[in-house]
Amino acid sequence: MSETLMHDIVIENRQKLTATGIENVDSYEDDCIVAQSECGEIVIKGHDLKISRLSVETGDMTVDGGIDSVSYNAPKVSGSFLSRVFR
Question: How many domains does the chain have?
Fold first, then answer.
């Protein structure tokens, strides 16, 4: 039986983002945050962004600042071209 992935994002007035299911933060700048979730890579863009709370144990993250966009990137394919062809 497969495990159900739990991931939510709530944005309040474009000033506060609360996310669950966060596994890791790859990069963090005041205009862009890249994080890994149970559902893939998340890119949060805006201005004056700051992570006010992060717990990788529970998977919770809170971001404050001006939030302009949130997007998911396709998962990265691992392995060489030939290893992917001959699976």
Answer: 1
37 in a structural domain: yes
Say if residue 20 is exposed, middle or buried (CB neighbours under 10 Å; 0-12, 13-18, 19+): middle
> How does pLDDT run across 24-66, given as a tens digit for each residue?
999 999 999 999 998 899 999 999 999 999 998 999 999 999 9
What one-character-per-residue DSSP string does 20-87 give?
ESEEEEEEEETTEEEEEETTEEEEEEEEEEEEEEEETTTTEEEEEEEEEEEEEEPPPPPS-HHHHHT-
